[in-house]
Amino acid sequence: MSSLEELSTQELQSLIDRARRILAERKEGNRPRVVDSFREGDARYLLEYVKCGRAVSGKCRRCREGELHGPYWYSYTWDGKKTVSKYHGKTRPGLAEVKENGNG
Ligand SMILES: [Zn+2]
Question: What is the pTM of this model?
Answer without folding.
Answer: 0.57
